[in-house]
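Whiteboard transcription, Tuesday session. T.W. wrote the C-alpha cells on the left side:
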C-alpha cells in the first residue's frame, strides 16, 4: 500500500515542490534573508525524502527525514521566521499531501487507507517537532554567540545552509543507490 503512496508522491513531486515553495515564499516575501533558490532546494529535499519514507527504504530514510526537518527549522530561524511560522509551513505540506494523494488513498481498502493517513500524519508531526528543535537550537546559538544582540544574515549563513543541504542531498543519493 505504501508503494502506491510513494508512486503518487513521486508522480506529484514537481507540483508539490512548486506549490509549497510558492506558498512559502509568497507569505514571507519580506523576510528574504535566505534566497528563494535555497528555500526551494530545501523544500525539494523534504519532498524527495518523503517519497523514500513511503517506499521500501522507509526505515533507512527516517533519520534523513528528521535531519532534513531539523535543517529546515534552522533555516527558518535564519530567515527570521517566528516559531509558529515554521510549524505553519510544514503544516502546509500536510494540506498538499491531502490534496495530491487523496485519490491514491481513497482507492485503498478502508483499513489500509486509514493506516496510510495516520502514517503520513505521524511523519509530518515528527517533521514539525524536529523543525522546531532546529529552530530553537539556532536561536539559542545566536543568543550565546552574539550575547543576545541580533545580527543580520550574510554570505556565510547562506553558505552554511547550502553546505548542509548538499550533505543531506548526498545522503539521499546514497540511500537511493541501495
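and on the right, the sequence the group agreed on:
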Amino acid at each position: 500500500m505504501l508503494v502506491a503512496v510513494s508512486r503518487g508522491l513521486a508522480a506529484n513531486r514537481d507540483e508539490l515542490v512548486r506549490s509549497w515553495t510558492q506558498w512559502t515564499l509568497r507569505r514571507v516575501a519580506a523576510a528574504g534573508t535566505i534566497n528563494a533558490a535555497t528555500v526551494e532546494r530545501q523544500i525539494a529535499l523534504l519532498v524527495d525524502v518523503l517519497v523514500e519514507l513511503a517506499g521500501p527504504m522507509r526505515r533507512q530514510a527516517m533519520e534523513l527525514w528528521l535531519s532534513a526537518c531539523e535543517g529546515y527549522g534552522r533555516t527558518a530561524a535564519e530567515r527570521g521566521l517566528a516559531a509558529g511560522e515554521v510549524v505553519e509551513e510544514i503544516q502546509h505540506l500536510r494540506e498538499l499531501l491531502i490534496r495530491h494523494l487523496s485519490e491514491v488513498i481513497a482507492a485503498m481498502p478502508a483499513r489500509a487507507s486509514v493506516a496510510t493517513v495516520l502514517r503520513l500524519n505521524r511523519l509530518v508531526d515528527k517533521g514539525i517537532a524536529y523543525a522546531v528543535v532546529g529552530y530553537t537550537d539556532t536561536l539559542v546559538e545566536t543568543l550565546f554567540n552574539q550575547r543576545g544582540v541580533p545580527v543580520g544574515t550574510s554570505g556565510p549563513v547562506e553558505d552554511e545552509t547550502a553546505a548542509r543541504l548538499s550533505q543531506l542531498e548526498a545522503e539521499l543519493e546514497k540511500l537511493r543507490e541501495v
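Someone added at the bottom: The two ends are 21 Å apart (CA to CA).
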